[in-house]
Amino acid sequence: MTDTPQNPIETTCGFVAVIGLPNAGKSTLINQIVGQKVSIVSPKKQTTRCRVLGIMIHEDKDQMIFIDTPGVFDAQKTMEHAMVGAAFDSLDEGDCILHLVSANEPKAIEKAKLIEQRLPRDKPVFLALNKIDAIQKEKLLTLTQELNANFDYKATFMISALKNKGLDRMLDKLAEEMPKSVWHFEEDEVTTMPMRMLAAEITREKIFNQLYRELPYAALVETEEWEQFDNGDIKITQAVYIQRDSQKAIVLGKGGAQIQKIGKAARLELEEMLGCKVHIKLFVKVKENWPDNPENFGLMGL
Q1: Where are the beta strands (DSSP E) in the chain?
Q2: Tens-digit pLDDT profile for residues 132-184
Q3: What is the side-by-side strand order in the sheet with 278-286?
Q4: Looking at residue 152, which CATH number applies to its domain?
């Protein structure tokens, strides 16, 4: 008697475009889903500048690639238009769309219309209300009803990305929308962002969090050198670009104390992430009006 060969597991693979206002929690959500940091996070708005992919495996058969995008806002400057354009471009890439709305966002319904009017009608679009523990249940119900009255969402999820609440049901539903396909990435891959760029983003996060009031969006970080030694240590050299010479003193601090603090914070996080000793050198350079020059956008992944 001949054994009947077992059918291979049928796999799926697809893209989920995550879109929302600044500070809706997109990066926090994707980091939580992936299980590690692939996108920088800050309580300040407009932290994410570039398109980031977070890759996860669901139920050992579904590979979902989440597209983290810059927050959508009323863009005024050249770089801002590029950021918002990248966010809306992701709608074309996604097999399904996840519209993330912060439940405690002031005027959430009015602001959501900026995105709802651009959502596609020819693919499944889901609504995820984030930070649900920060709003009363009665207000949450009203918010849900009004958002669904403005757009025909396939389903609505109540979640807390930070506290990992409600994500399992959401992932189950999103997985159902993934097309049958072989996986696009290896099982252990969690992002396509080069480590050099992620390291630069981590340093920018530290600058952003420590100097937000003085330099809201003025800094750009580029990893210029990445050297790994025989003992496993890594040496990273990064340039911190600012727009004006007068901003140098802010980044450096008295006696270089501020730049040392930034470098230490970035080094500690990178050491934990890479599992080895990291040596990091930061140099502050002036690149006048860099946000207005599209040639610089490649450094940000735009």
Answers
A1: 12-20, 52-58, 62-68, 96-102, 125-130, 156-158, 220-228, 234-242, 278-286
A2: 999 999 999 999 999 999 999 999 999 999 999 999 999 999 999 999 999 99
A3: 220-228, 234-242, 278-286
A4: 3.40.50.300
Domain co-membership, 136 together with 230: no
* Nearest CA-CA partner of 127 in 110, 115, 139: 115
Q: What is the CATH number of the domain that holds 273?
A: 3.30.300.20
Residue type, 256: G
Please report, for residues 2, 11, 55, 112, 299, the alpha-carbon distance to residue 5 in angstroms, rounded to integers and kept in the order given. Answer: 9, 18, 31, 52, 50
Q: How many CB atoms are closer than 10 A to CB 298?
A: 9
Domain that holds residue 63: 12-175
Closest listed residue to residue 23, CA positions, set 134, 121, 125: 134
* Structure tokens belonging to residue 109: 């319904």
Kindly report the pTM of this predicted structure: 0.83
Distance of CA 80 to the CA centre of its chain: 16
Is 20 found in the same domain as 73? yes
**Residue 62 pairs with which residues in a beta bridge?**
12, 58
